[in-house]
Amino acid sequence: MDRKPREDHFLGIDVGNTKLAFAITGDNELTFHEKRVVRTEPELGVEQALDKILTNSQELLETHRDQVKGIGVAFGGFVNATRSIALASPNFPGWRNVPLVNLIQDLAPGIPIKMDNDANVAGVGEATYGKAQGYEQAVYLTVSTGVGGAVLFNGQPLAGSQGLAAEFGHMIVKPDGPRCTCGSQGCLEALASGTSIARIARERALSRANLMLELAGRPEKITARTVSEAARRGDGLAKAILEEVAFYLGIGLANVISAFDPDIVVMGGGVMNSADLLLPGAIQVVKKHLSARGAIVPPIEASSIHDDVALWGAIALAHIAARVVSRS
Ligand SMILES: [Zn+2]
User: Fold this and answer.
1) If you measure from the C-alpha of residue 121 to the centroid of ligand 1, how many angstroms do you get, rounded to a whole number?
2) CA angle 188, 194, 255 (to 5 degrees)
3) pLDDT (tens digit, 9 = 90+) per residue, 115-130?
4) What is the reported pTM?
């Protein structure tokens, strides 16, 4: 009888502030064998969220027992330099110093585990399955609620001495600019994140007639998506706001490219659903700044992995974890 050898499996876990996602994949396929998504509900506290993370992980590990060869974890917050402790998360107030790798390791003795912050993990996902595939040096920049990123060399993220490398959201792009959630002023995140786009639009929506207010009903209901929709329909104020956002994204990109000279820059995150409205303007700014010294602008492209990029990244990290062990 012809028997197929048992295939290796990998477990990816994405610990976000709104949802917890889990997926099992086979060796070479680009589909999830099994995927689960549950709500994080930070308001119920850390214990409850941890219980969901561990229970779901354990159930998936039991179903695929003996086949799981590696585990990758994306954490939506700060991770310590040795990548074992999930330190804190800006949108999960009670979360402090959780030894997440050890807790998951207890469920899966001997199986290699790797964890990183979600922006780095998403970058690994881009380098393994997305537009940055095949490039030795890549930069990933994500624009969603916040702004973050990763610097990748041969598909692996640069950590930095405190584990805080590639915090592109907190690059200062306008020293006298608005206050940032980090306490500083004029950070890229304070000028170009989804949250900031909504804030700027709300501040200006009452100054003159505009479609954003019409679409949202009330200023406080305006989101970054409202701004994009209004801009697409030709609204002058919405277009002016996005032009400004594109300008600061361009300044940020010029700085990142000057620092790392990457082969490619991939742009991800929810705000990049409006890449057609933002990227051309941002690229203009990059070209202007880089061409002055004759530098060639690398390709700057919107991600093609729209959903689950951190989960795919966690799977890629699980493969890396397994490879590291099999080599040593
Ligand atoms: Zn900041």
Assistant:
1) 21
2) 25
3) 999 999 999 999 999 9
4) 0.92
